[in-house]
Hints:
Low-confidence stretches: none
Structural class: mainly beta
Distance between the termini: 110 Å
Radius of gyration: 32 Å
Strand content: 35-45%
Number of helices: 5
Shape: rod-shaped
Amino acid sequence: xxxxxxxxxxxxxxxxxxxxxxxxxxxxxxxxxxxxxxxxxxxxxxxxxxxxxxxxxxxxxxxxxxxxxxxxxxxxxxxxxxxxxxxxxxxxxxxxxxxxxxxxxxxxxxxxxxxxxxxxxxxxxxxxxxxxxxxxxxxxxxxxxxxxxxxxxxxxxxxxxxxxxxxxxxxxxxxxxxxxxxxxxxxxxxxxxxxxxxxxxxxxxxxxxxxxxxxxxxxxxxxxxxxxxxxxxxxxxxxxxxxxxxxxxxxxxxxxxxxxxxxxxxxxxxxxxxxxxxxxxxxxxxxxxxxxxxxxxxxxxxxxxxxxxxxxxxxxxxxxxxxxxxxxxxxxxxxxxx
Length: 338
């Protein structure tokens, strides 16, 4: 009788929920797998014996598109007739951890290769910027600086608290063309479901108070269908003014001409807005909204540049200061009389 030992061939590969190969090139993150011998203890992982750790960052994995565990067969650590547990220690960014898989390596000889695909489910996370009414906002066009967006940094909380300079995970600018087209930023590919993050607003356009920081995990976010949503609220700055005569009556125009004003940054002297009461004022009340030109924590002067008819324009500017970070909007409007 001739006895032939047929070698065990076992390959392991990482795939997404569609069966497509996952490598480190997708989003610069790797997947780490642990392989345990769980022969007699399938239901008791405390007795499992760790055989090896596999990392998709390995250059050979990227070249072969699978892990070949033959060396552990040759070393006698993987044997026919045993059960093995594949456990995912770290999932790629943008994917959920896979559930453990139990694989039986058969005793009977076979010349075929045992291929175990270990799938990860992608997570989709959308970042949205809204005002206090829930209206999606992205940018504001100013006189001096052109298009301004909201700039938000997403930070790894652990690294941020440790002062690590690499704590920033991704930066979002809502004035980018892709964000403005979609109304959101797709950030799931940068996030790990195993970590906690902090969303911090780094810059906001004129007309808005800075948003509060948001500490979150992927699973702590509300879902809209299959999409997780990270929604950051920026309350609008509400300031209005109107022109009045000596009787306290509104003045909008005289002989078809409006009163003209400049809104000036008191610190720099820059003109941030110009107003004509005829075109900008509320016809019934005379109030003109100016909050859209203002920034929190700054002081401004309202300077009259033209008065029609028999009126002479004011010689003294009206000074206003916008409250600073962070102000929760309650819909209260600050009113200024000129």
